[in-house]
């Protein structure tokens, strides 16, 4: 689209006449030295002008001393005085001016004309970050976009929330890569990305209708430009390290504490002589390591006026900080455009990726946290030690036996499209996209015996094949015309259809030989106990109609009306279709005549939008009353199996999509010739008909459109670009506030219990007037010091040293009625501050990021089943000799482990997200050896974090689909630090 | 080239229009579940009716219904058993052992949920199967099976919590929370279900061998007898137990130590047991045995026999050895119990011998059937009812029948009891119930029924409070889920 607008401008300008004084010629290039076609070259204060050709060459008749004005969309306009017959110029990319173009979904638009709220991130803002997924590099880059790294595992996808948490269900945004809808962008090599545009308000999202409620991340990959073929190599390599190791008690301390607990709980000491045990085993040393990371990529791009291409290949390889964790990925991308006739174009964007993920044994970090430090990891005779006081597995044995859990995936994502211009103002586009994914999993567990509780009696092989197929066919008709230089209308009409199907096949056999991968095949296992299954498999479809009109009056009064009508197989026939309208208004105040004489503003625009969006991120087939199978009974003297199945889930027959109604008011400002830019938005997202998975008691769950909530807040973005002599610098800041509150709960206002700790306790409650997934429990009021204190208290069964809870209702009993809200897991405010400096050949970029106001439930400490190891803070426990009023006596369970603010900590942090220092060799040195550019750099990702949180990392997002467990820190593989050196070479 | 673009225009416009065709898109948007049956199809055949009934039995061997929480509620609370394992391991279970329960205890909620999940599955059969066109005899039997199990699960609930929400129908997804019924209302429903079941269920011998383990007329009568006993309806107890004893379906011929082994599963002793199997592919068993197995050697070591139980046996009573595993003991299968086991005793009735079948998932998926109602219990109920109704001769006969089986060929032990007084005989029957049914999920509820739980349990240092500890707290998550419709039991 961007290209088509350029071509249009080119055609328009070609008609301009020129007349001769003296011929001046030259070449216009971009910052990479590639020729820019279609650049307008005009003699200042005249109508005389020319355009560059496909290689960026131009030629114009001009007088000496005339000033040539070079202008091109997306580039800063430059002026040069004619002196001599040759004038070459390099244009700088313009990311701040009014000419900036943003993707708006089914098209592009000048940012100046946009009535919605869109955050754009360019390739250079996320370049060279050592991450597998581009979303990770986006952290702190865009206002309103909160990205939290869930798991510090190679290739793990971060959690993305746009403008708060809109639902208790799946709040993930939709990703649209070159027009293709995908759930996940890990197939994508981050270096292939040209721009990322995050659509945030109703006006920009309504065109995505029932899938727009959680925001849309539009990704445009790099295309070719006509001109000389440019080759680029970029590679980096480095190390990954655990940023913070938790301090656990050593063997003799642990033994002392276990003895104390045993006595506290009425037993006998377990260890006769704790002092003799020494330091023992630090299990973290056994599971963590210094990981490695490397990435290499080669790109070739170029083209002529008929054909452009961008071909890239990359290889990413990461060995994680947890032993055995590894991820590698090979990607190929081919983006082409073909201009078949003057009005008919074809194009394709195709990406193939192949990845392999080596998974760690489930819960291994938590196992190491819990493991008994008094045991020997491996004895001299080769056997593994096991604890006499706890059933926590020996992590060394777990790692030694559970070595084979590998997922290999191949994915083809892309589209092929055709565009036809006709009747001057119309363009018809048809795009057919596919997303084909093939997954192949192998899990092998050998036969082993460590202890009664850590054993596997028969070797077991599990193999899985999954095939996911999506096709998306979109047909759009665009009309674009200006009437009488006053009215501009850009209208879009479209129809789309999507079909997604997933098939799965799994086989399991026992007693499979495992001495090499060559024999890990089901066929070699025993047929006794063999199992196969081919569910879950599913299919869903969407059919949609689109409509949008952008109308601008006098280039300063802007109106956008969007509408999408969606039908989804996820909803019952009688309520299958939904319509999502939105309207956006804009006023470019700066272009008003009364602004002509003022000097303060260089840009001033007010915009507002209002509209409705939907969310269908829910499981398929909910409106069908489905039977749970596999509930087989045993009968007969032979105790044989008889098939069993029944209706288990409660079915909601009239379940609908969730609706988000959003209001946005924004003000865009530029000062000092746009050296300083600022943008302020107020947003109010109201979610209604929120789908709840409600515990309605007696073990039953129901899904219902039962709740409403809002997310409100402000987004501020400010940028400063300037240079002082040779020092060029830019400072960009963004800040977002979120106020999240549930306004209504259906089902009689029954609060939703969430945040299961896995020990029968739950840490969050979602209730009216509170944030989604707010922490809920007792408030601690010190520690009981004496038996007298206990006697007079509301906790008559307590012992001295136990936590004292606040008797909130003063009824003399501590029970569920005394629980209170203890904070929110959603940051109230988060921000990013990104700086770039360049001086001659040197460049420096430092990115900061912060998050404030959210709490973390330290589930790691709050969940104990037996004699797990302790963090060193346990040494400050209450004892008669150490009458602490903040740390309770040690027990392995009981009321001290009830959900209370004793386990709640602040989740606020400030993190230096990234530092990059680079040096570009002077081009004069290189041109002689045929190299266009060389840049070397050093990058540090997550080098420093400032936080009071005592756990590994304050980034605790919660797992996918577990919105109500956000901020519960349980079995999280910590986020790590990555240090790399890299090289970029252009030929 | 022009023709190509015209062609393209035509195709694209046509296809857009095709998508617009309402009929086409409605078909395109209709996607049925893949690899899953839907209710209308499933509950429309005899096969569906049988499978839905089987699913109730599946629920019975699940963790929340009959494993951890069940052991806590029915056994650790009693004077027969301690929590077991390491003192700090699964501390929430200590609250059952010590009567310091609070409504947030996860075990109480698990138990509640486990019983209601079974009730919901029974309701599916009771409500949906009547409309299915199928063999009427089979239909009646399946509904009868569901009713008997539903009655049993409500019996567990009413004994544990008193009055609970009485849910006997399919619940609409937006039905309001059901408040607690009275204890009497629950008992009325239980009796109705059991009488319905008795009317239609076949006797044990009338089932095909492949269906051994399903609910029977005898089992339903046995449960009704027990339910009647808890309400002091002694003539009912006597009538029902007499009928069972005269039915010819059961006897006391199975040696006591065999009853709890794999060979003793569904023996002539058995009225009802939860069926579990160690299937070669796994998934047919339960974790019942693992959680009780010798800690450090086989399993987790919870629910261990108490010193008080060990002392309760008469000298030479072989039932002690068949019930209690001691440190260093050589088991019948030749296994020697480790001498440094964490706990002094373990429950032998949950022991899985080495020669029994094993699942690839290990002991966590064990073959052990969970014995819920057996013939000796019926005979002891018969004895107690007869004694209450002053038919002391029958009482003594029944009591001595149980002692005789325990005695076996060893004439020097467990002498016959003779009648001296009604009270003395009652005490003897209660004592016999304890040792005969030790570790069989009867004792705590039995003590409460007998009205002496406080006396007995406080003597062992447990914090039993009369008027409170007879019932357990209504789980807080259930109160929360009901929006406060459920009320808490007194004292919690």
UniProtKB/TrEMBL annotation, chain A:
Annotated membrane topology: Multi-pass membrane protein
Keywords carried by this UniProt record: Cell outer membrane, Membrane, Signal, Transmembrane, Transmembrane beta strand, Transport
Gene3D superfamilies for the chain: Carboxypeptidase-like, regulatory domain (2.60.40.1120), TonB-dependent receptor, beta-barrel domain (2.40.170.20), TonB-dependent receptor, plug domain (2.170.130.10)
Cellular component terms per the entry's GO annotation: cell outer membrane
Signal peptide annotation: 1-20
Annotated InterPro entries: Beta-barrel_TonB_sf, CarboxyPept-like_regulatory, Plug_dom, Plug_dom_sf, TonB-dep_OMP_SusC/RagA, TonB-dep_OMP_SusC/RagA_CS, TonB-dep_rcpt-like
Entry superkingdom: Bacteria
Subcellular location: Cell outer membrane
Chief localization: membrane
SUPFAM superfamilies on file: Carboxypeptidase regulatory domain-like (SSF49464), Porins (SSF56935)
Sequence ranges assigned to domain TonB-dependent receptor plug in this UniProt record: 111-216
NCBIfam families (UniProt xref): OMP_RagA_SusC, SusC_RagA_signa
Family: Belongs to the TonB-dependent receptor family.
Protein name per Swiss-Prot or TrEMBL: TonB-linked SusC/RagA family outer membrane protein
Phylogenetic placement of the source organism: Bacteria, Pseudomonadati, Bacteroidota, Cytophagia, Cytophagales
TrEMBL record, chain B:
Keywords: Cell outer membrane, Membrane, Signal
Coiled-coil regions, chain positions: none
Subcellular location per the Swiss-Prot or TrEMBL entry: Cell outer membrane
SUPFAM superfamilies according to UniProt: TPR-like
GO CC annotation terms, alphabetical: cell outer membrane
Chain ranges of the SusD-like N-terminal domain: 27-227
Residues annotated as domain RagB/SusD: 304-492
Family affiliation: Belongs to the SusD family.
Protein name per UniProt: Putative outer membrane starch-binding protein
Organism this protein belongs to: Larkinella arboricola
């Amino acid at each position: 689209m961007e290209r088509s607008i350029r071509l249009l401008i080119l055609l328009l300008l070609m008609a301009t006449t020129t007349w001769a004084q003296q011929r001046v010629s030259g070449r216009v290039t971009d910052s990479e030295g590639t020729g820019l076609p279609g650049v307008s070259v005009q003699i200042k204060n005249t109508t005389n002008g020319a355009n560059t050709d496909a290689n960026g060459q131009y030629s114009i008749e001009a007088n000496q001393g005339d000033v040539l004005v070079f202008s091109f969309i997306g580039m800063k306009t430059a002026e040069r005085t004619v002196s001599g017959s040759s004038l070459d110029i390099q244009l700088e990319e313009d990311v701040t001016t009014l000419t900036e173009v943003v993707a708006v979904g089914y098209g592009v638009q000048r940012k100046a004309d946009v009535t919605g709220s869109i955050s754009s991130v360019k390739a250079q803002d996320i370049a060279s970050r050592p991450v597998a997924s581009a979303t990770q590099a986006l952290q702190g880059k865009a206002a309103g976009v909160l990205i939290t790294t869930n798991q510090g595992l190679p290739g793990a996808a971060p959690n993305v929330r746009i403008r708060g948490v809109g639902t208790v269900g799946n709040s993930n945004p939709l990703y649209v890569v070159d027009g293709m809808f995908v759930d996940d962008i890990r197939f994508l090599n981050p270096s292939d990305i040209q721009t990322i545009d995050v659509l945030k308000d109703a006006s920009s999202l309504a065109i995505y209708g029932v899938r727009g409620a959680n925001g849309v991340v539009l990704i445009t990959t790099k295309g070719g430009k006509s001109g000389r073929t440019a080759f680029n190599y970029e590679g980096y390599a480095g190390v990954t390290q655990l940023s913070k190791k938790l301090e656990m008690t050593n063997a003799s301390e642990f033994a002392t504490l276990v003895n104390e607990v045993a006595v506290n709980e009425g037993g006998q000491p377990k260890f006769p002589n704790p002092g003799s045990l020494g330091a023992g085993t630090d299990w973290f040393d056994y599971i963590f390591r210094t990981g490695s990371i490397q990435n290499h990529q080669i790109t070739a791009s170029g083209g002529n006026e008929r054909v452009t291409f961008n071909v890239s290949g990359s290889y990413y390889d990461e060995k994680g900080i947890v032993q055995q964790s590894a991820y590698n990925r090979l990607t190929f991308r081919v983006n082409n455009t073909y201009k078949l006739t003057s009005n008919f174009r074809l194009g394709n964007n195709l990406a193939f990726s192949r990845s392999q993920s080596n998974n760690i044994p489930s819960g291994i970090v938590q196992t190491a946290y819990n493991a008994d430090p008094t045991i020997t990891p491996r004895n001299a005779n080769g056997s593994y030690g096991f604890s006499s006081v706890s059933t926590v597995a020996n992590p060394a044995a777990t790692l030694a036996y559970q070595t084979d859990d590998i997922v290999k995936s191949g994915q083809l994502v892309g589209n092929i499209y055709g565009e036809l211009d006709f009747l001057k103002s119309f363009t018809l586009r048809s795009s057919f996209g596919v997303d084909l994914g093939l997954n192949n999993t192998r899990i092998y567990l050998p036969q082993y015996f460590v202890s009664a509780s850590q054993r596997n009696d028969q070797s077991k092989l599990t193999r899985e094949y999954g095939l996911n197929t999506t096709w998306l066919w979109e047909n759009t008709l665009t009309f674009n015309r200006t009437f009488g230089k006053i009215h501009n209308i850009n209208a879009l009409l479209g129809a789309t259809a999507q079909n997604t199907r997933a098939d799965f096949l799994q086989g399991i056999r026992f007693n499979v030989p495992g001495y090499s991968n060559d024999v890990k095949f089901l066929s070699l296992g025993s047929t006794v106990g063999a199992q196969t299954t081919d569910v879950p498999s599913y299919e869903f479809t969407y059919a949609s109609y689109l409509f949008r009109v952008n109308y601008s009056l006098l280039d300063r009064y802007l109106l956008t009306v969007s509408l999408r009508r969606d039908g989804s197989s996820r909803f019952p026939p009688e309520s299958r279709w939904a319509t999502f309208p939105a309207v956006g208004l804009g006023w470019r105040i700066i272009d008003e005549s009364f602004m002509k004489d003022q000097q303060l503003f260089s840009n001033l625009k007010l915009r507002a939008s209002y509209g409705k969006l939907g969310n269908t991120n829910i499981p398929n087939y909910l409106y069908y009353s489905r039977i749970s199978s596999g509930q087989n009974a045993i009968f007969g003297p032979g105790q044989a199996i008889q098939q069993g199945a029944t209706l288990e889930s409660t079915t909601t027959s009239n379940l609908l999509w969730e609706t988000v109604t959003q209001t946005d008011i924004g003000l865009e400002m530029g000062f000092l010739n746009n050296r300083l830019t600022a943008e302020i938005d107020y947003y109010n997202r109201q979610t209604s008909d929120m789908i709840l998975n409600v515990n309605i008691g007696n073990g039953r769950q129901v899904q219902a459109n039962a709740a409403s909530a809002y997310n409100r807040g402000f987004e501020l973005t400010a940028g400063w670009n300037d240079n002082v002599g040779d020092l060029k610098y830019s400072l960009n800041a963004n800040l977002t506030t979120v106020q999240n509150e549930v306004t209504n709960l259906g089902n009689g206002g029954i609060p939703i219990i969430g945040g299961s700790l896995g020990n029968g306790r739950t840490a969050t409650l979602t209730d009216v007037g509170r944030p989604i997934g707010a922490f809920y429990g007792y408030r601690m009021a010190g520690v009981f010091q004496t038996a007298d204190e206990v006697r007079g208290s509301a906790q008559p069964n307590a012992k001295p040293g136990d936590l004292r809870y606040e008797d909130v209702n003063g009824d003399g009993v501590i029970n569920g009625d005394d629980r209170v809200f203890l904070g929110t897991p959603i940051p109230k405010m988060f921000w990013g501050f990104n700086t770039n400096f360049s001086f001659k050949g040197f460049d420096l970029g430092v990115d900061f990021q912060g998050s404030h106001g959210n709490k973390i439930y330290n589930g790691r400490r709050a969940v104990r089943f037996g004699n797990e190891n302790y963090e060193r803070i346990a040494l400050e426990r209450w004892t008669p000799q150490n009458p602490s009023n903040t740390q309770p006596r040690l027990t392995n369970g009981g009321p001290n482990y009830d959900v209370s603010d004793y386990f709640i900590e602040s989740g606020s942090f400030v993190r230096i997200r990234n530092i990059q220092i680079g040096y570009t060799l002077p081009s004069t040195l290189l041109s002689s050896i045929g190299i266009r550019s060389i840049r070397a750099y050093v990058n540090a990702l997550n080098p420093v974090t400032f936080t009071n949180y005592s756990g590994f990392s304050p980034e605790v997002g919660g797992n996918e689909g577990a919105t109500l467990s956000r901020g519960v820190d349980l079995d999280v593989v910590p986020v790590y630090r990555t240090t790399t050196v890299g090289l970029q070479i252009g030929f | 080239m022009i023709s190509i673009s015209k062609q393209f225009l035509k195709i694209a416009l046509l296809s857009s229009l095709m998508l617009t065709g309402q009929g086409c898109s409605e078909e395109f948007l209709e996607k049925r579940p893949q690899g899953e049956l839907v209710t209308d199809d499933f509950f429309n055949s005899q096969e569906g009716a049988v499978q839905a009934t089987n699913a109730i039995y599946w629920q019975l061997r699940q963790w929340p219904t009959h494993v951890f929480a069940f052991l806590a509620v029915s056994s650790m609370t009693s004077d027969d058993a301690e929590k077991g394992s390491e003192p700090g391991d699964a501390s929430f279970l200590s609250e059952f052992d010590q009567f310091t329960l609070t409504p947030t205890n996860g075990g109480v909620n698990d138990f509640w949920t486990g019983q209601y999940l079974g009730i919901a599955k029974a309701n599916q059969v009771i409500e949906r199967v009547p409309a299915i066109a199928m063999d009427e005899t089979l239909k009646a039997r399946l509904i009868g099976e569901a009713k008997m199990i539903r009655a049993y699960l409500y019996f567990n609930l009413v004994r544990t919590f008193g009055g609970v929400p009485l849910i006997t129908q399919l619940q609409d997804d937006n039905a309001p929370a059901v408040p607690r019924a009275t204890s009497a209302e629950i008992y009325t429903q239980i009796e109705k279900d059991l009488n319905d079941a008795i009317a239609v269920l076949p006797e044990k011998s009338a089932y095909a061998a492949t269906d051994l383990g399903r609910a029977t007329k005898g089992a339903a009568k046995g449960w009704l007898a027990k339910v009647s006993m808890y309400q002091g309806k002694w003539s009912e107890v006597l009538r029902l137990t007499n009928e069972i004893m005269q039915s010819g379906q059961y006897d006391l011929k199975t040696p006591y130590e065999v009853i709890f082994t794999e060979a003793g599963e569904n023996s002539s002793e058995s009225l009802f047991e939860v069926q579990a199997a160690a299937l070669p592919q796994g998934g047919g068993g339960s974790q019942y045995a693992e959680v009780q197995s010798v800690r450090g050697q086989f399993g987790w070591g919870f629910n261990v026999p108490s010193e008080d139980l060990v002392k309760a046996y008469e000298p030479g009573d072989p039932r002690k050895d068949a019930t209690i595993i001691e440190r260093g003991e050589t088991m019948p299968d030749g296994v020697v119990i480790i001498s440094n086991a964490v706990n002094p005793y373990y429950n032998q009735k949950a022991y899985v011998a080495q020669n029994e079948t094993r699942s690839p998932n290990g002991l966590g998926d064990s073959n052990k059937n969970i014995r819920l109602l057996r013939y000796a219990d019926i005979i002891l109920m018969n004895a107690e009812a007869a004694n209450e109704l002053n038919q002391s001769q029958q009482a003594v006969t029944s009591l001595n029948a149980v002692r005789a089986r325990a005695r076996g060929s060893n004439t020097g032990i467990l002498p016959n009891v003779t009648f001296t007084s009604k009270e003395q005989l009652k005490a003897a029957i209660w004592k016999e119930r304890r040792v005969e049914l030790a570790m069989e999920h009867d004792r705590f509820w039995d003590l409460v029924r007998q009205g002496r739980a406080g006396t007995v349990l406080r003597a062992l240092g447990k914090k039993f409070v009369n008027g409170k500890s007879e019932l357990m707290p209504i789980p807080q998550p259930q109160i929360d889920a009901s929006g406060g419709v459920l009320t808490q039991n007194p004292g919690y």
